[in-house]
Design brief:
Order of helices and strands: HEEEEEEEEEEEEEEEEEEEEEEEEEEEEE
Number of strands: 29
Number of helices: 1
Largest sheet: 5 strands, antiparallel
Radius of gyration: 27 Å
Strand content: over 45%
């Protein structure tokens, strides 16, 4: 007598046959097609790189023109000048500690330093006159040490300095201090928004919170005082904040957000590896970023976004989250980075 197989066994055979037929079909591959690599545009800038030996070149830059650059070294206390590829420097005295050099294309250049007067560090200011920097007299009567993080100089009669926990204004005659809510607040950047409102971007570290957390703040100068108008402690980390011309941007590993009405709006997807790396630009459609990506056997350094596609700008030079990117004009950028062998790279990009 023939043994009858059970219905479940027959069902199992049918399923297995179906799987076999589908897997063998030329029209139904089980392996998904590979992701196409991103095809970067060719470089939109012509890049020239100067190598400076040593570190400490991270406190400001003034491009007097494309072939005449001033940059400070806070470790050696020297103001360097690179003019037509020739390097020279001025050594500052031991009681005057260089901060930064800044300026514009109209031959207005300034040095901001701090000088020990008695037991308090006071402002030391200079303006470029002719071919040298000349001291600008100030009362040097601050009651707290002047250790600044950010500077905005409109003219010799309106200078703003962001110290830890307070802001100093120099009107050409007097120094005025504006304390912030927390004495450990670090001022990152002065800027004017699209409505010409004067603001500062700040950070505040909270060691009391689990693991320690950084809060990002924005203050606005109104009615002769600085008022807090924005605080971000709740958004998922890591985030870093930057100023893109007149806008506030926050970045994470692959997205640049734009702060609009105190809400972070995802605005730009970043293709290069971008984790907490710096960016700067004329707008969200004209941005230079530093990123460490490996492309065509080349260690990538700089990329540009023009509103449509990313371009691969420069390779072979070390960049990391401490890299500085300066927008001089819409056609001119400078980037400063430091490698692990004690070299500093000064990268100049001129738009083609």
């Amino acid at each position: 007598m023939k043994k009858i197989k059970s219905i479940p066994v027959y069902l199992m055979l049918v399923v297995l046959c179906s799987i076999f037929v589908v897997s063998c079909s030329e029209d139904n591959s089980v392996t998904p097609p590979p992701v196409e690599p991103y095809h970067y545009d060719s470089a939109r800038f012509n890049w020239k790189v100067d190598t400076l030996f040593g570190q400490g070149f991270y406190a400001g830059l003034w491009a007097k023109d494309t072939n005449d650059i001033f940059i400070t070294n806070v470790f050696t206390n020297r103001l360097y000048r690179i003019q037509n590829s020739v390097k020279s420097y001025i050594q500052y005295p031991v009681n005057t500690y260089l901060g930064l050099v800044t300026g514009d294309e109209m031959n207005n250049g300034y040095v901001v330093a701090t000088k020990l007067v008695g037991s308090i560090y006071q402002p030391f200011l200079q303006k470029f006159e002719g071919n040298i920097f000349v001291e600008i007299s100030n009362p040097q009567n601050l009651e707290r040490n002047f250790f600044f993080n950010a500077v905005m100089i409109k003219n010799p009669n309106e200078m703003w300095f962001g110290a830890d926990g307070f802001i100093v204004k120099f009107d050409g005659t007097n120094l005025t201090s504006y304390p912030l809510e927390d004495s450990t607040t670090k001022i990152l950047k002065f800027f004017y928004d699209e409505n010409s409102k004067f603001k500062i971007l700040c950070s505040l570290y909270h060691p009391e919170l689990f693991g320690g957390r950084t809060e990002f703040l924005i203050y606005e100068f109104t009615e002769n005082k600085w008022e807090r108008i924005y605080g971000d402690l709740e958004n998922p980390r890591p985030l870093r904040y930057y100023i893109i011309n007149k806008d506030v941007a926050a970045v994470n590993g692959n997205i640049i957000f734009k702060l609009t009405d105190n809400v972070l709006i995802p605005t730009l997807n970043v293709v290069p590896k971008f984790f907490q790396f710096p960016c700067n630009g004329q707008s969200f459609n004209d941005i230079i970023i530093a990123a460490n990506d490996q492309l065509s056997d080349c260690y990538a350094s700089l990329f540009h976004w023009n509103g449509n596609r990313w371009s691969f700008e420069l390779c072979g030079y070390w960049v990391d989250p401490s890299t500085e990117i300066y927008l001089i004009k819409e056609y001119l950028y400078y980037c400063i980075s430091y490698d692990q062998n004690g070299r500093t790279y000064l990268m100049r990009g001129l738009k083609k």
